[in-house]
Amino acid sequence: MTRVVLYTTPYCGYCRAAKHLLGKRGATFTEIDVSEDLERRREMIERALGRRTVPQIWINDTHVGGYDELAELERAEKLDELLAQADAVAAAVPGE
Description:
The protein has 96 residues and is of the alpha+beta class. It has four helices and four strands, in the order βαβαββαα.
């Protein structure tokens, strides 16, 4: 299981685009809806060093940023490598 986390809202086009791109790459992810959960939104802002926009994306505890940064990784042909590294870490963790 890939360790990918997305903080999203249901009405965000960039969130939908990020989920589509990750799905196209075969990645599984955990989605955290911050539209009405102030505690999770604060958590996202703190983890993202003050960034308030969605989506905010982490792959294997590495903050990717938003959709634009995710798409840039894809264009640079680096996304699959990052996802593969996350898969390897997840496979090494017992019980996951």
